[in-house]
Structures are given as structure tokens and as C-alpha cells.
Design a protein that fits this description.
This protein is of the alpha/beta class. Helices cover 43% and strands 15% of the residues. It has one domain: Alpha-Beta Barrel (TIM Barrel), CATH 3.20.20.220. It has a 5-stranded parallel sheet with strand order 1-2-3-4-5. α3 runs parallel beside α4. The termini are far apart.
């Protein structure tokens, strides 16, 4: 079910946000937490997406588990920073194939070890570009986490280029 349909009901909602575990011990803890929280019957759950796609595979596996095994409505986050359009397309196609109906598009922060000047030209620079691409090519219920006034980096570049 699309989140927009859940919200149209006008009732308070309950949701939980999960992020992929990076160690086996953390995965055990996460699995127990998921089991406990789904007992509360949340309206939906969300899964984060690491900077620069650092948790891309872990995010996919967690989304899959929550959707298929736990039968939860999932909002899959998708951070565009440093991912090429074909990588974004592959992620979106995988989510679509799983039956995911909800995406939260965001630019995402650069990973600590990434030089922001070396981002692939084919990548989306802003959440708005990612959102437009998703809207044009898919029928997901789409949320966007963005800066209407532009990011701090964008504002600094605009100021320095005008001098």
C-alpha cells in the first residue's frame, strides 16, 4: 500500500526506521528488534540507504526481509550521492520487482573517504534530480528529503561564483 493511502485515512500512524547491520552481532540484534517491533503492527517501516551506496546490498536485503518475510509496508530510502544513473535504475528496478511501492529520495551525504569533486558526472547532484527521474520512470509513491533553499555547499558555491 502506498504511504499516501495510509495517510489519507487521517489516523495517527506508527512507523519504525531501520538501518542495515554492518556486523553479524549487529544483525542478530537487529533481527530480534524487528521481531519485537513488528508485533506492534506498525503502519509502515522505513529502511535507510548508506552514503554513496555503502549499504546498498544490505539495504536491499533488509527491505526484502521486511516486505517478504515480515509482510510490512516499506519505505525504501534511496540516496543518490555518487551513484551513477544505471546504478540508481538497478536499485529502483529491484525494489519494484519486490513490490515496494514507496521511495524516499534524498541526495545523501558524501562518505567520509569520498572527494566531492570526483563524483561521477552521470550521478544526480540533488534530490530534486533524483525525484524527477523516479517520477518520470516509475509509479512509486515518492517522498523527498531535500533543501528547498539549496544545500549549504550549493549556497557557498553560488556566493563565491557571484564575486
Amino acid at each position: 500500500m502506498k504511504i499516501s493511502e495510509i495517510l489519507k485515512k487521517g489516523k495517527p500512524t506508527l512507523s519504525f526506521e531501520f538501518f542495515p547491520a554492518r556486523t553479524e552481532k549487529a544483525a542478530e540484534s537487529l533481527n530480534k528488534t524487528i521481531d519485537d517491533l513488528v508485533e506492534l503492527k506498525p503502519d509502515f517501516v522505513s529502511v535507510t540507504f548508506g552514503a554513496g551506496g555503502s549499504t546498498k546490498d544490505g539495504s536491499y536485503e533488509l527491505v526484502k526481509k521486511l516486505k517478504k518475510e515480515k509482510e510490512q509496508e516499506v519505505v525504501a530510502y534511496l540516496a543518490a550521492f555518487a551513484l551513477k544513473k544505471d546504478e540508481i535504475t538497478a536499485v529502483l528496478n529491484n525494489y519494484n520487482d519486490l513490490g515496494i511501492e514507496n521511495i524516499l529520495a534524498l541526495r545523501g551525504d558524501p562518505p567520509k573517504d569520498v572527494d566531492v569533486t570526483q563524483v561521477p558526472v552521470e550521478s544526480f547532484k540533488y534530490a530534486s534530480e533524483l525525484a524527477a527521474f523516479i517520477r518520470q520512470n516509475y509509479s512509486f509513491c515518492l517522498g523527498v528529503a531535500g533543501y528547498p533553499e539549496g544545500t549549504l555547499m550549493h549556497q557557498v558555491l553560488r556566493r563565491t561564483s557571484n564575486t
